[in-house]
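This section describes the prediction task in plain terms. A model, or a person checking by hand, is given the sequence of a single protein chain and must write out its three-dimensional structure as a string of tokens. No templates, partner chains or ligands are provided. The sample shown here is typical of the held-out split.
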Amino acid sequence: MLSPFFIYKEKNMIKDLVKYPQTPSIEFNAPVRFFNEELFKLIDDLKDTMEDNNLEALSAYQINNPYSVIVVKQEDESYLELINPRIFKSSEKITTKEKTTYFGDIEVEITRDKNITIMYEDRDAKQCYLNASDEFSVLLQRKIDYNFGANFRQRLNEEQREQLDMKLDYGVNVILDNSCPTNFKRDKLLKVINILLGINLFVIIGYLFISDKNLLNTISVNIDYSFATILVLIVTYFFYAQYEGKQYTNCMSCQIGNIIGTALFHLTKLGVLWGVFAFIS
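The expected answer:
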């Protein structure tokens, strides 16, 4: 015969966490009306699931249960049980980087309330109040979001949501705020190319006023080497720019056109200079 302790532990279970692309239940934020064994069983399941997944807090919605229940593991290893929690007071704002078990390792910046006051009930149906600030406040807000059937995606602006969706759909290793930057590393290559083109332009102009044949031959050889170097740099720019552009997939189409156009523009300038020099030499 099984011992009563074993039978009790058998009732509690480690539940599967709801993760993308699984769609959570459409039922959520169901208020707890009966403080009975069914509720206590749910709370114990949340604790077991937290321990198994090394989580600091868990909402019932995250294990596909519609009831408005949150469990938080405190610093002393005890559990804070929040039943029917509601935020009824908040102040200040704080921007934090957040992750959620639903979206895996994706991290985003979210603006939330820095200080909150929560009203909730304990397992004895006693009404309680809790003040929270900073990280603890953010943690509770995240879990309360789940109670209402939401996650941080609903708090993103349209552009951030598009970037998040691309990350989820294509698995591209990009950060969520990776809109096209105004400065790329490839711009340094363009700067070197333009400097070399400018130097060669002045040298070609000076070439017209030099009569020493030995000096002209030296200049001619150096210009040829310089033109070849510029050509290599332009080709390098073209391929590196495409590689760098892949890190910002949300604007890839415009970048490809810009990369091709920029490379052709500098090739044209190089071709004109090279043609002019070939003509005068």
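For orientation: DSSP finds seven helices and five strands in the chain.
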